[in-house]
Design goal:
By secondary structure, the chain is of the alpha/beta class. The protein has 13 helices and 17 strands. It has two domains: 5-31 and 297-405, Aspartate Aminotransferase, domain 1 (Alpha-Beta Complex); 41-293, Aspartate Aminotransferase, domain 2 (3-Layer(aba) Sandwich), CATH 3.40.640.10. Bound molecules: pyridoxal-5'-phosphate.
Length: 407
């Protein structure tokens, strides 16, 4: 039987803290989620019992640590339904995963006059690396706009794709508006024109059922710390055919086969893309986070979070002068808003004084803010341990700030 979602909150020790003498209401989960005790224990157990450098050692601890690390690779592959564990590359996070592809793919496949398409809804980490790659390779950077609901304009995408398009990079869920993009349809449109797709799953992999084979993405990137795992570890999934063709991104120890003054040959997959000593402890923490998440029924988890989101949107929409941004057909876990006449930054500081943690500003999506003609938003974002009481506290907190500043 799967674990009850309502029992999740007690697994996260940090949530029982007080902030400014009030119970913590943590609604900044899109920035990073809190960690369950099982993840915290897995990291400290690793350092207490198994710490050793992996792959190269032949003593017992090295073998134990290597096995633990490689087991997590298999868990990640199963979690996202990759065809094989060799298609899983550990990185520092989504940002590094996307940079890896932007560098390696750019070097191998992008020539002057070629084109790269990204969406206007992207986090800077799925925007800037492509911008820079276009500058390095003499390619043209194209952008799919979004409409007044915060949805991507797929007709515009259709018109942007052409024979010079080398790659499309798009997120599954927008971190500033929460739009759930129709990834299946987007991948299909791109593949019909022979264009590979990189999907940024940083705001999706912890909330929705995930299957990279069904999605048919060529590349899929995500961060551990947004899915209850530690900071400093992330994943690049890539179809084997691409990993075989791409040159390495970082080079050094472990990623090589032969090294002579004349030439260097590379290790097999996935090690060709994992130069140097990896972040073993946090990879093991990621494995513990996946074990933790696997206790829940994901369809139930998604329904629970969707209901929470609707409840929160309902409460916020009753507050006079409050505007929620975007109205996509499907939204996930993000409540972006502003109150007329109140700076988002001031709202954030005053909510914090009541123990309520939200994020304010551009959320690393300046192109989104520019399109909305605003300097930023207040963003409340949800995780599986949030509940109605958190959203009621948020609504009360916002109403209090309005009373305070508009008196
Ligand atoms: N992509 C999206 C959609 C995000 O929300 C974030 C972080 O907020 C990132 C990429 C970057 O993730 P990281 O900083 O963990 O590399």
């Amino acid at each position: 039987m799967s674990k009850s979602i309502l029992s999740a909150r007690e697994d996260f020790p940090i949530l029982s803290q007080t902030i400014n003498d009030l119970p913590l209401v943590y609604l900044d989960n899109a920035a990073t989620t809190q960690k369950p005790q099982a993840v915290i224990d897995a990291i400290s157990d690793y350092y207490r019992t198994s710490n050793a450098n992996i792959h190269r050692g032949n003593h017992s601890l090295a073998i134990q640590a290597t096995q633990a690390y490689e087991n997590v690779r298999k868990k990640v592959a199963a979690y996202i339904n990759a065809a094989s564990a060799e298609e899983i590359i550990f990185t520092r996070g989504t940002t590094e995963a996307i940079n890896l592809v932007a560098y390696s793919f750019g070097e191998a496949f992008v020539q002057p006059g070629d084109e790269i398409i990204v969406s206007q809804l992207e986090h800077h980490s799925n925007y800037v690396p492509w911008h820079l790659m276009c500058q390095r390779r003499g390619a043209t950077f194209r952008v799919i706009p979004f409409d007044e609901n915060g949805e991507l304009d797929l007709l515009a995408l259709q018109q942007l794709v052409n024979k010079r398009t080398r790659l499309l990079a798009v997120n599954q869920v927008s971190n500033s508006l929460g739009t759930v993009n129709p990834i299946g349809q987007i991948v299909k449109m791109a593949h019909e024109a022979n264009v590979p797709v990189l999907v940024d799953g940083a705001q999706a992999v912890q909330h929705t059922v995930h299957d990279v084979q069904a999605m048919d993405a060529d590349f899929y990137a995500f961060s551990g710390h947004k899915m209850y795992a530690p900071m400093g570890v992330g994943v690049l999934y890539a179809k084997r055919k691409w990993l075989e063709k791409l040159p390495p991104f970082l080079s050094g120890g472990e990623m090589i086969d032969q090294v002579t003054p004349e030439k260097v040959t590379f290790n097999v997959l996935p090690y060709k893309f994992e130069a140097g000593t990896p972040n073993v402890a946090d990879v093991i923490g990621l494995g513990a986070a996946i074990d933790y998440l696997n206790q829940f029924d994901f369809a139930e988890l998604e329904a629970y979070e969707d209901e929470l989101l609707e409840y929160g949107l309902g409460l916020l929409s009753e507050i006079p002068g409050l505007k929620v941004y975007g109205n996509p057909k499907k939204r996930s876990a993000i409540l972006p808003f502003n109150v007329e006449g109140i700076q988002h930054y001031d709202m954030g500081i005053l909510l914090d004084s009541k123990g309520i943690a939200v994020r304010t500003g551009q959320h690393c999506t300046q192109p989104v803010m520019d399109a909305l003609h605003i300097t930023g938003t207040v963003r409340a974002s949800l995780a599986l341990y949030n509940n109605h009481a958190d959203l009621e506290a948020l609504a009360r907190g916002v109403a209090r700030v309005i009373r305070l500043l508009k008196r």
